[in-house]
Amino acid sequence: MSETWPDAQIDELDEPRDFREEEEAREEEPREEEPKQHAYGELDIPDDVNVLEGIPDGSRRSVAIVASRFNGEITNQLLEAALEELDARGVSRGAVTVMPVPGAFELPLAAMALAKTRRFACVVALGCVVRGETPHFDFIASEAASGLQLAALETGVPVAFGVLTVDVKEQAVARISKGAEAVRTALEMADSFAQLRASAR
Questions:
Q1: How far, CA to CA in Å, does 201 sit from each of 105, 192, 194, 196?
Q2: Any idea what the CATH number is for the domain that residue 81 is in?
Q3: Is the pLDDT of residue 19 over 90?
Q4: Could you read off the pLDDT of 27-58 as tens digits, one per residue?
Q5: 60, 116, 118, 136: which one is catalytic?
Q6: Is 38 a catalytic residue?
Q7: Which of 48, 87, 103, 162 has the fewest other C-beta atoms within 10 Å?
Q8: How many domains does the chain have?
Q9: What residue numbers bound the domain in which 102 lies?
Q10: Residue 1 belongs to some domain of the structure
C-alpha cells in the first residue's frame, strides 16, 4: 500500500531551501557556555575569624620532584611545566631535586622517602597512567593516588598529585598544565604549614 501526502506537504518539499541562511542564523544564536566541571574558587571567609592561608611563594624553599619514567614523553612535558612554574615562583634550580622512578606505582615510596628526609618543604609527584584493555590502569592509578596521600599524611610534608590518569595520550597532552598546578598546590600548602608552625611558637 503506497503512502500519499497532502499537496501542501509536497509543495513544501519542492520549495528550495537556503541552507546558508539557516547556518548563519544558527551561528548568530548565542551559545551557552558549558559549565566547568572543576574550577578553582575563592571562599567567603568572615572578617572576624583568624585565617591561615598559604601563598605559592617558593623563595627560601627546597622542593623535591618525583617523576615516573613510564610514559616518559608526557612526564617530560609535566616536568618542564613544573620547573617553569618553580622558576616563576622564586625557587632556584639549586633548591630543586628531581628523583626519577620506573613508574607511577613507585611514586608513593619515593615521595615518602624524600619527605622523611625533612630536607624539602614539599614534594611534587609527576607521571601519567593511560588506560589500557585490562584493569591494570585502575590498580596503578588508585595505588598511586592513595600512596601519595599516605606519604603526606604520615610525614606531614605536602605531597602534590601531578599524575595524569587518562584514557588516551591526547588527553594527557591537553592537561600538561597540571605540572604547574601541582607546583602551586605544593608551595601553597608548604607556606600554610610554615605559618602554622610559626604561630605555634
A1: 38, 15, 11, 9
A2: 3.40.50.960
A3: no
A4: 455 455 555 566 668 899 999 998 888 999 88
A5: 136
A6: no
A7: 48
A8: 1
A9: 63-199
A10: no
